[in-house]
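This section describes the prediction task in plain terms. A model, or a person checking by hand, is given the sequence of a single protein chain and must write out its three-dimensional structure as a string of tokens. No templates, partner chains or ligands are provided. The sample shown here is typical of the held-out split.
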Amino acid sequence: MNVKFSFDEAMVKRWGFMLEGVHQTIKNLFAAHNFPCVSEGDGLSFADKGHGDDFAVMWDIILSLLHSDWFVECAASCIWLDEDGEEDILAQVGKVQEQGV
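The expected answer:
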């Protein structure tokens, strides 16, 4: 499993943030659960650790981000990749916020 993030730098600045700070915030969320950042640069990518609860923990992090206005406004992409393929997480924002998931 892998999740990839990219951000709209102009929107990040409108929110009064710096892109480096946004990246560090996302890295800290995943690092708190020992998920490795496997790619940095214009975007960030995090991989699972091979543990049985990785899926649930990664989705808890993602869902918390989807409930954050700054994330929804600043994220250019959030893509979930696993053995079943690829999923656009940002396409689910309305559903997640509506259902309070």
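For orientation: The mean pLDDT is 93.
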